[in-house]
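Q: what sequence does this backbone want?
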């Protein structure tokens, strides 16, 4: 049996790291992107022979092209089985005051970077013989925020809304090439994403001081209750190996209250809940 191959962006930590470890344990050859040589060397030593580090910034086309060419040569005519667009960034803040360049950076990584990487690796995913059982897979990591926009997450949530739309369009465009596009939209995950993104005092000079601090306290508390990165990795693996996969998976801790119920409520009702929970009154 031919060894299967996957490309995963953002494997230095969190979901990407757990996903790389899981695929390697299942016998895959894993190409994983990191942003610096030190991480590449450390992960290569840790993960072993079947792991190939790709040093690239998903915002830089020349680095992406160089890495995709490396993968193409390593495949030597064999197809790429799956591309997992996991690299992303999150920074919280009220849209009225969040730095415009910061918002631009979030979109550059989460949206434009995803498109750049996908375009670079698409030729290796395409199925030449549609009568075969093989299909290429693209898995894009979105978020609960791709469907539900909380206050102070406007930039991040809108970037993930864009990922949802891009995924749907790509899926419909790539059907003739035998490529399926799947969305994974996790809820809170036990990684320090919001610990890094919080910046507790950053907006104390604004009218949002109390509400923003309440939001950060809530986010940090919920982060500890989230799913383990390894649990998300299991969902990703299942999606990539299932012939007729769902178009979207929602691995969410306390799923009823954090996903099912909010999705069933009207926007006006959600407005009131957010207003009350974060004490939005000024």
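A:
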């Amino acid at each position: 049996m031919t060894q299967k191959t996957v490309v995963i962006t953002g494997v230095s930590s969190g979901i990407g790291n757990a996903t790389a470890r899981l695929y390697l344990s299942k016998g895959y050859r894993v190409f994983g992107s990191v942003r610096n040589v030190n991480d590449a060397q450390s992960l290569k030593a840790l993960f072993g022979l079947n792991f190939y580090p790709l040093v690239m910034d998903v915002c830089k086309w020349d680095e992406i092209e160089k890495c995709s060419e490396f993968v193409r040569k390593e495949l030597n005519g064999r197809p790429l089985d799956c591309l997992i667009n996991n690299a992303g960034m999150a920074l919280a803040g009220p849209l009225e005051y969040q730095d415009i360049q910061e918002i631009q950076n979030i979109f550059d990584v989460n949206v434009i970077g995803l498109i750049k990487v996908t375009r670079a690796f698409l030729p290796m995913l395409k199925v030449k013989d549609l009568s075969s059982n093989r299909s290429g897979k693209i898995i894009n990591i979105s978020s609960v925020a791709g469907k539900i926009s909380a206050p102070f997450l406007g930039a991040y949530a809108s970037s993930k809304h864009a990922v949802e739309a891009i995924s749907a369009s790509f899926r419909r465009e790539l059907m003739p090439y035998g490529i399926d596009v799947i969305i994974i939209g996790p809820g809170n995950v036990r990684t320090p994403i919001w610990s890094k993104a919080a910046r507790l005092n950053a907006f104390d000079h604004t009218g949002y001081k109390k509400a923003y601090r309440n939001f950060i306290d809530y986010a940090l508390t919920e982060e500890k209750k989230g799913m383990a990165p390894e649990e998300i990795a299991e969902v990703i693996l299942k999606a990539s190996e299932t012939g007729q996969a769902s178009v979207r998976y929602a691995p969410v801790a306390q799923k009823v209250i954090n996903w099912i119920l909010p999705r069933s409520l009207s926007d006006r009702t959600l407005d009131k809940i957010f207003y009350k929970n974060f004490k939005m009154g000024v």
